[in-house]
Amino acid sequence: MGYYPASIQNLIKNIAKLPGIGEKTAERLAMHLLRAPRHEAEQLAQSILDIKEKVRFCTRCFALSDGDLCNLCSDPARDPSLLCVVEQPADMVAVEKSGAFQGMYHILSGVLSPMNGVGPENIRIRELMARVQKDQVKEVVLATSTTVEGEATASYVAQLLENQRIKVTRIASGVPMGGDLKYVDQVTLKKAMDTRHAL
Q1: Of 3.60.21.10, 3.40.1360.10, 3.65.10.10, 3.30.420.40, which CATH number belongs to 77-173?
Q2: How far apart are CA 155 and CA 153, in angstroms?
Q3: Tens-of-pLDDT digits for all 199 residues of the chain?
Q4: What are the structural domain ranges in the chain?
Q5: pTM, entire model
Q6: Are residues 157 and 125 in contact, defined by beta-carbon separation less than 8 angstroms?
Q7: Domain 6-54's class?
Q8: Measured between alpha carbons, how far is 75 from 197 in angstroms, rounded to an integer?
Q9: Which of 11, 62, 107, 179 stands the most exposed, by the fewest C-beta atoms within 10 Å?
Q10: Facing residues of 84 across strands?
Q11: What DSSP line would sit under the chain, residue for residue?
């Protein structure tokens, strides 16, 4: 890489720090930015600075937001009696893109993982419990991942909500749409069989 000037080498090195970007892709992106009009490069640089200065957590659901409340918590059309619990902001976005949920969200910012030193006090379970009581929630949908940690977190939250007069549900898991049974792993197939329902 010594054949590039130091400024380009520095840009390539910094782009390569991004997840999923190798040195060749970083080099291509650096060359693209070099050829791009100055105003496009300035817009990119400014948008990076903006997220570092403006983005914070929503004070209600802990999604990413430019203000105290995120767009979904500010939307009066959302159903506040339905609360979907997810691990990370990206999980909330995935559920939203499906268009299948019109309630509110609560982002835990992690999952229980005793092996990694992550207990209930390290994720936003306390805030969830306070919110459930304060916001008159009727149903909590547990949409954590189907990993061991995600399942343990869902079970733990379900136990905490057991004595509340709230419906607690878990998202279904199993064979994906368009999936061919012979390619589905045994654990997923067992889960699909265990959670089968009438048609």
Answers
A1: 3.40.1360.10
A2: 5
A3: 568 999 999 999 999 999 999 999 999 999 999 999 999 999 999 999 999 999 999 999 999 999 999 999 999 999 999 999 999 999 999 999 988 899 999 999 999 998 899 998 999 999 999 999 888 899 999 999 888 899 999 999 999 998 888 999 998 887 777 777 777 777 777 777 777 766 6
A4: 6-54, 77-173
A5: 0.82
A6: yes
A7: mainly alpha
A8: 34
A9: 179
A10: 105, 141
A11: -TTS-HHHHHHHHHHTTSTT--HHHHHHHHHHHHHS-HHHHHHHHHHHHHHHHH-EE-TTT--EESSSS-TTTT-TTSEEEEEEEESSHHHHHHHHHHT---EEEEE-SS--BGGGTB-GGGTTHHHHHHHHHHTT-SEEEE---SSHHHHHHHHHHHHHTTTSS-EEEE---SSPTT--GGGS-HHHHHHHHHT----
Tokens of 26: 């970083």
User: Residue 5 corresponds to which tokens in the numbers above?
Assistant: 């000037």
Q: Which residues contact 143 (CB under 8 A, 6 or more apart)?
A: 84, 85, 86, 91, 95, 171
Q: How many residues does the chain have?
A: 199
